């Protein structure tokens, strides 16, 4: 997981920003799917 992504996740969790957490999870899922297939 890239550093910038971890920072975004931490920030979202600290702010309890559910929308952003969901968004980041989706981005990560698509990113992994594209790069690991």
Please tell me about this protein's structure.
The model has no long low-confidence stretch (mean pLDDT 87). α1 packs antiparallel against α2. The relative contact order is 0.14. The chain has 37 residues and is an all-alpha fold. The protein has two helices and no strands.
Topology:
Blueprint: H1 3-14, H2 18-36
Helix pairs in contact: 1-2
In short:
With 37 residues, this protein is mostly helical.
Radius of gyration: 10 Å
Parts with pLDDT < 50 across at least 5 consecutive residues: none
Mean pLDDT: 87
DSSP summary: helix tally = 2
Distance between the termini: 16 Å
β-strand amount: under 5%
Tally the beta strands.
0
Silhouette: flat
Biggest sheet character = none
Protein structure class = mainly alpha
Helices and strands, in order, run as: HH
Q: Determine the fraction of residues in helical runs and give it as a percent range.
A: over 70%
List keywords for this structure.
84% helix, flat, mainly alpha, 37 residues
């Amino acid at each position: 997981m890239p550093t910038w992504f971890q920072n975004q996740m931490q920030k979202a969790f600290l702010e309890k920003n559910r929308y952003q957490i969901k968004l980041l999870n989706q981005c990560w899922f698509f990113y992994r799917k594209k790069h690991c297939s």
